[in-house]
Write a structure and sequence with these properties.
The chain has about 475 residues and is an alpha+beta fold. Helices cover about 35% and strands about 20% of the residues.
Length: about 475
Amino acid sequence: MLYAETPEMPMHTMGVLVLETPKAPVFEGLKRVIEERLHLLAPFRRRLLEDPLQLGDPHWIEDPEFSVDNHLSRSAVPSPGSMRELAELVAASASRMLDRSKPLWELQVVEGLEGGSVAVVAKIHHAAMDGGRLVSLIGTLLDLSPEGRTLGSADDNWTPDKEPSLLWLTADAARSLVMKPLNALRAATEVGSSILGSVRLQPSRNDNAAKLFEAPATPLNGALSPQRAVAMADVAFDDVKAIKRAFGTTVNDVVLAAGCGALRAWLRSRGGLPLQPLVANVPVTVRSEEDEEAGNRVSMILVHLPVRIDDPVARLLAIRDETERAKAQHGKSKGDVFRQATDLLTNVTVPWVLTHAIEVYARSHLADRLPFLWNLVISNLPGPPVPLYCAGAKLVRLYPFGPVQQGSGLNLTVMSTADRLCLGALACKRMVPDVEDVANGFVAEVALLKKRATERTPCRAETRF
């Protein structure tokens, strides 16, 4: 996440919390909540430490200059601000990299929205936490009632780290370089075992599972620009669950099918559908109890999105069948593919080489000429199942956003709240300037599937999660 970051590819995640009209100032209340709960927000006080030559591994240190004021700001859209104006503000923030001289997060309180609503735009580097940790962080910052709560006593024993000397950084880089051959051998062994295990698990030569580098060329794919476009939409969570029950699928299958239908309509209006199905990267958590404090424990499965199938229910059922096979195979593999691959890559080279290689790749626009890993990312995060409050104001919408990667210019991320399923669509502005059309298509596809679910004779009770 750190080595791959360039101005064209910021690697942070974001969330937009829309609050109903507050009775008290949100900015002051949020600052107070953060200060009271810092002992439960360990990543908030950790700063990245890199050696000047980028030869050794980076570290997190307890920032000796930490201040909440460096991370919390307020702004406003021209009143009465619409969701489109809020989206433009979020897109501008998404286009900017986080400052590595400070802990890698920021919160922006946005005022001036229609009806007196207030939004909180949260931004945190993906290296600091994945979606699972982000959900946990939300649970720490938000409350079950407007009155708030007390979450244990503050940690008065927190001690910031001292800035290490150049001699320490040099010695640490030397230690890292000495250990790299042994670590590379271990990582290569793990990757080899995972590959062999995956080969043994292949059902047959006719297996049609989605694979890396088979994504068809579409307007969604190519080299990234530094600018981002953002759209937000939401649907009734009860509608999504009704679709799930009617057709015997999962919520995630419905999300993938709605994304598939939205992209089918979008592609048809922009030159036509590809001959092959799209390939979606679907992140999955591999976090265990031992990894509770780890920043990232995420892997992925690849899923075909059959955009050439006309019938929306047929698309949903085709996706259901493929995700069941993909999850079963992923579960048997027992491997954290992402961690293993990055572990190998970071031990056969040094940070300086990796970061400059990514920069050359970006500046040369090689993503326009090389095969694409996948077409887009679609992620589903389990959100809070009960009403929540932020600094006394009720949370009414929570829109999540994940980063885009070179070669893949669209990320669709959803998160459920008590009664809504909220979609955050983030895209490269050059590739998908009209990302709002994709978000609207998602809503339309859910409505179409809900209509078909209502017409369908209820099948036998079946529960899927």
